[in-house]
Design brief:
The protein is an alpha/beta fold. 49% of the residues lie in helices and 15% in strands. It contains eight helices and seven strands. The protein has a seven-stranded mixed sheet, with helices on both faces. Helix 1 runs antiparallel to helix 2 and helix 2 packs across helix 3. The protein is globular and about 50 Å long.
């Protein structure tokens, strides 16, 4: 039943975007897209907490990448545009939703496509948008990110806007089901997610990095910031698991 409601919400999203395209009101469209993300999270039974302040003004947001669920988490908090792999454009329903919401696309491993994406991101930033990129180039199972690539961060330098690090993590009994990596396919993963127990996403925002250094340096600094924010979460979970184990042991020895 939950999955049916999610699919219905996606179809309604397509209908809403079609109507909005006729009005040519970018601010209204952005607001409706944000509300759509919030509703989608509610239907999946997902919760989220925000640590830090949502950035103001145009900026390039760089985040670790665990799942397509990251889009819902970030998109429910702020009006942003995402850069996504080109394959997403062909996903059932989702591809049209992404295009209608202003998503930018790039063919991974294609240098020409990467350069075009860089130009698109620069243009979006110069017109005042906030753009989210996942500089790992792929989703992982975490908790720590793999190496951040610096190529797309050059767009922030060209546009003269700050780079904002963001760290995503998932918690609760269903957290393992949030991850979308490897050979998983979207439809199967969405079905499992609709049946998952409680999941809470944590979105942590780091300090903005001014675009005064080379892109490679900014990428290293951004990754270090993301890792430090995630390390806090990992340590908290280890402490909680240790405390729980201690309680269980004490219970079984009396």
């Amino acid at each position: 039943m939950k999955l049916f409601r999610v699919i219905l919400h996606m179809l309604r999203g397509l209908w809403t975007l079609k109507r909005l395209s006729q009005r040519n009101d970018n601010r209204l469209t952005a607001r409706k897209v944000q509300l759509w993300h919030r509703k989608a999270m509610h239907l999946f039974g997902l919760e989220r907490i925000l640590v830090g302040d949502v950035p103001k003004g145009p900026c390039l947001i760089v985040s670790n990448h665990l799942s397509w669920v990251d889009i819902l988490m970030i998109g429910s908090l702020m009006n942003v545009r995402f850069l996504s792999k080109a394959e997403v454009a062909s996903w059932p329903i989702v591809g049209k939703l992404a295009r209608g919401a202003g998503t930018l696309f790039v063919h991974r491993g294609d240098r020409r496509s990467a350069e075009l994406a860089l130009e698109d991101i620069e243009a979006a930033l110069k017109q005042g948008d906030q753009v989210v990129v996942f500089p790992e180039g792929t989703s992982t199972r975490g908790p720590m990110p793999i190496k951040f690539r610096s190529r797309l961060i050059e767009a922030a330098r060209r546009a003269g806007v700050p780079v904002v690090p963001m760290a995503l993590s998932y918690h609760g009994p269903g957290k393992a089901l949030a991850s979308y990596a490897g050979d998983d396919d979207f439809v199967s993963h969405m079905t499992r997610l609709s049946q998952a127990p409680f999941i809470r996403g944590r979105v942590a925002v780091g300090s903005a990095i001014e675009p005064t250094e080379p892109a490679a340096v900014i990428a290293r600094d951004a990754q270090a910031s993301v890792e430090s924010m995630l390390e806090l979460v990992v340590c908290e979970e280890r402490d909680t698991e240790h405390a729980s184990s201690t309680v269980d042991l004490a219970t079984t020895t009396h």
